[in-house]
Amino acid sequence: MKRIKFLFVALTAMLYLPLFAQGQQAETHSVTLQHPTKDTEVTLVVRDSANENRASLVAAPGVEEQTEEPTLEIGTSITDFCMSMGVVKLFEGDGWKNLIMIAVGCLLLYLAIVKKYEPLLLLPIAFGMVLTNLPDSNMYHPELFALSTGDHVNWALFSEGAGLLDYLYLGVKLGIYPCLIFMGVGAMTDFGPLIANPKSLLLGAAAQLGIFATYLTTIALGFTPQEAASIGIIGGADGPTAIFLSSKLAPSLMGAIAVSAYSYMALVPVIQPPIMRLLTTKKERTIRMKSPRQVSKLEKVTFPIVGFLFCAFIVPSGLPLLGMLFFGNLLKECGVTKRLSEVASNAIVNICTLLIGITVGASTQATSFLTGRSVMIFCLGAFSFIVATFCGVLFVKFFNLFLKEGNKINPLIG
User: Fold this and answer.
1) Phi, psi (5° rounding) for residue 67?
2) Which residues have C-beta within 8 Å of that of residue 35, sequence separation ≥ 6?
3) Over the stretch 363-397, which tens digit does the pLDDT of each residue have?
4) Could you tell me how far CA 183 lies from the centroid of its own chain?
5) Strand-by-strand arrangement of the 27-34 sheet
6) Model pLDDT for residues 304-351, shown as the tens digit of each residue
7) 177: Cβ–Cβ under 8 A, 6 or more apart, which residues?
8) Could you give the C-alpha distances from 95 to 109, 195, 367, in angstroms and in order?
9) Distance CA 55, CA 33 (A)
10) Beta strand pairing status for 27-34 and 53-59?
11) 263: Cβ–Cβ under 8 A, 6 or more apart, which residues?
12) Cα Rg of the chain (Å, integer)
């Protein structure tokens, strides 16, 4: 009976533990008990803090201390773990939208790897698309860049919880990657054929009619002139230009515009061949053009300098892109900066293509991307791309009407 009474008192004292666990500082409470069969006083010490609750029996010298540890509820832990899994969140709320975007990303990965449709562009975009739509990835936060004040980044929120892709996306938002890519493109471009045959400049200009057609169509659909210009530039088949222009004129649409531009660029082998076969005959497609005249080194070195100055005086707002384009070409043609030219045309272009691809893909979060406006932008981008192809090919066919038989141009160039 005495043993039962002793245990009852000890258990009663231990029940007071929860009362001491309400965020107070650590305190120690003790209850002295008389052992029922031995002349030994046993002290029950209750230690309480915000992070620790335990009771121990501290006996006189020679008596072993006993400690009761909290029990682990395995069932609750397993349930909490299962509910925190990402696959569960795919079936909560708008999780189905993430599933759609992940499926689209996997489809693009298939086209890039198996079908080899522009894999250098399509694969990073597709992987970024899958990465950003995984539940609780927390790598990209569109709210950090969604400002209506004209600023590029919400720096106040950026310092609190930006993810990896948020930092990489700064190169897109601030227009850094497009300019560096243009420098690399300039270092890889030979303007010799254009210098030898200046009228070929008209062929490229004709293809830009798709931009203007889309611009007018987009305004008719209710977009602002700035948004219409950003959407229409997709027809130029130039991803860096589309990103740069949309970051200046329509930052809120830049994600959809960039993905649309790069996707259609990657799908050129799918989109353009049917149009070319439709508009040309087999005889026209097999026209062999004369080789252009040999261009001197002086002409090649002078061209980027003159072109840069001309653009600076006529269209100064385009200097970030065109300036870097002519600078890269000057590195190539001057002959004294071979190492810089090789770095610009290889390492820098490859790195920027990788970063711009994965960050553009990351901007396709389901919550902000699967909207009616995004669908319209994709449709208008396809329209711009198709009209540009039509106009380029048809202009060459028209141009050939005024050329002699030996000087005709292959319409596929358009």
Assistant:
1) -130, 135
2) 6, 41, 42
3) 888 877 778 888 899 899 889 889 988 988 888 88
4) 21
5) 27-34, 41-48, 53-59, 66-68
6) 999 999 988 998 888 888 999 999 999 999 999 999 999 999 999 999
7) 171, 240, 243, 352, 355, 356, 359
8) 21, 55, 9
9) 14
10) unpaired
11) 108, 122, 125
12) 34
* pLDDT tens-place string over residues 162-189: 888 888 988 888 889 989 999 999 999 9
* pTM of the predicted structure, to 2 decimals: 0.71
Which tokens hold the place of 38? 């031995």
Residue 9 confidence (pLDDT) above 70: no
Residues 90-130: tens digit of each pLDDT: 666 677 888 888 898 999 899 889 988 778 888 998 999 99
Which sign, positive or negative, has the C-alpha torsion 225, 231, 235, 236? positive
How far, rounded to the nearest angstrom, does the alpha carbon of residue 26 sit from its chain's CA centroid? 49
What are the Cα distances from residue 96, in Å, to 133, 226, 289, 371, 388? 11, 33, 53, 14, 36
User: Is residue 24 over pLDDT 70?
Assistant: no
Round to whole Å and give the CA distance between 238 and 26. Answer: 66
Please give the DSSP secondary-structure letter assigned to residue 235: G
Q: How far apart are CA 155 and CA 177, in angstroms?
A: 20
* 345: its two tokens: 């045309």
User: Side chain identity at 198, as an amino acid letter?
Assistant: P
Both tokens of 391, joined, read: 């106009």
Alpha carbons 270 and 239: distance in angstroms, whole number: 17
Question: Per this entry, what is the length of the chain?
Answer: 414
- pLDDT at residue 286, rounded to an integer: 84
